[in-house]
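AraC family transcriptional regulator
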Amino acid sequence: MPHAAPDPLLSLQQQARPLASQPGHTATALPELWLFRSDQPLSLVRGYSPYSQVAVALSGRKWIHCQGQTFLNDARQHVVLHGRHHYQAEVEASPAAPYIALKLQLPPALLGRTLLELLEAQLLPRREVAAAAFVGEVNAPLADALCRLLDCLGHATERRLLAPLYLKEITVRLLTSEAASVLRAGLTREHLQVLRAMQYIERHATRQPEIEEIASAVAMSRSSLGHRFRQIVGMPPGQYARQLRLETARLLLLDEQVSVAQAAEQAGYASTSHFSRDFRRQFGLSPGRYADTFLRQAVLPLAAMAG
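Predicted structure tokens:
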């Protein structure tokens, strides 16, 4: 008698729940991915963020109030929210039935690159009127990709080589699903120019191109690029380039285990102290402590990063 195929969502729950072993936020070795757990009812308010966010409920439930609409995110479902929308939420949870969610941020660079590729390949679904949020069942392909992403957390080589592929797969699946309208809200020609500016910055981030050079490369004026970039990405071009340099350094520290000074130099920093200050501001720990922590373990409660 043939065996039933394993349930990818059940596998995801079994993998993720042990990582959220205590209440609060738990960081992982991938800054885009973390977990949240509450053992008691909570009221939350979320403000502006430059990132779109995906939350997969593993247990418990959360009511989300956004743009005059109410959405229920409970076990076996995922919610997609655009960072430009503020929302309020009520979490239903208890010690016996905690609320546990796997959270994933979609960086503007990843979302933008994938969106451009799908547009050029004419693989995007027909544009729908954008809702404030999307809630839907976690299907098998999405759950499977999330499982593979969790699998690679504890392996430096897999995390470096495979995690970007899994993140890209997850982004493609969301952009070609009913959630696409939330992620694509307000796409215009200027959005595409800004996305191409992001790609230009990515290619030249370590030498810190001036905004005039970036604007010329995407056929925009300096003032228009600065205004639209901040509006769409949520930060100015210089800050975006700095985040890319810090991500380069983070990968060097974890995957190649270089010294802090080497990571700073290869990421385009002239000053190690300046690099260390920016790194701590971005990731919550000094570069050395960050590397020591995540080389020993795959997850860390965020409360431990406050020092």
